[in-house]
Design a protein that fits this description.
By secondary structure, the protein is mostly helical. The chain contains 6 helices and 2 strands. Helices cover about 60% and strands about 0% of the residues. Helix 1 packs antiparallel against helix 3.
């Protein structure tokens, strides 16, 4: 198994996932494509935690580029301690990714549990579903309690769910790289005798 190649695959995947996290988080600021709700502070407080932009996005790019930057297609040199150190150092980058993705998952889960900030039939802005402890997610008939912004519940549920899934995927990929980096550091980039002879 080529540990360096595996790390680069993980890195490329993380770049794309981090971009999707950033886009999903940005969309949370514009329900129905309108800016007035953000300007008037009528968005869920968890939108302002930048979970997708910082945690699942920008913070994830650091480990992603570290993984991608591992030496191109070189699976030789099991005795090369420089490569072993490189693989072990990628574990530190993966831990940063785990922290960022964990932050994204936690904030997205809290955002889903609390529900959106919306206007009720009396025109009062509040967290209509905060007391339901997330049970509103199972009963879509209650979503009509939010009058404005229109379809805000669907908007929040969809985007926070996307952030939750993407953050969870990033967490798994970074955890995989921790294992991959440790094994690569112990064995060298590749430990296959056949690959050594081919080189």
């Amino acid at each position: 198994m080529c540990y360096g190649k595996c790390a680069r695959c993980i890195g490329h995947s993380l770049v794309w996932i981090s971009v999707f996290c950033i886009v999903a988080n940005i969309l949370l600021y514009f329900p129905n494509g309108e800016t007035k709700y953000a300007l008037d502070d009528h968005l869920s407080r968890f939108v302002w935690y930048f979970a997708g932009i910082v945690g699942g996005g920008l913070l994830m790019l650091l480990p992603a580029f570290v993984f991608i930057g591992l030496e191109e297609d070189d699976c030789c040199g099991c005795e090369n301690y420089g490569k072993r150190c490189t693989m072990l150092s990628s574990v530190l980058a993966a831990l940063i990714g785990i922290a960022g993705s964990g932050y994204c998952v936690i904030v997205a889960a809290l955002g889903l549990a609390e529900g959106p900030k919306c206007s009720d039939s009396q025109g009062v802005w509040n967290y209509t579903f905060a007391s339901t402890e997330g049970q509103y997610l199972l009963d879509s008939s209650t979503w009509s309690k939010c009058y404005e912004p229109k379809h805000i519940v669907e908007w929040n549920v969809t985007l926070f769910s996307i952030l939750l899934v993407l953050g969870g995927t990033e967490f798994i990929l970074c955890l995989t790289q921790v294992i991959n980096g440790v094994l690569g550091g112990i064995c060298g980039y590749c430990c296959s005798h056949q690959q050594r002879y081919d080189c």
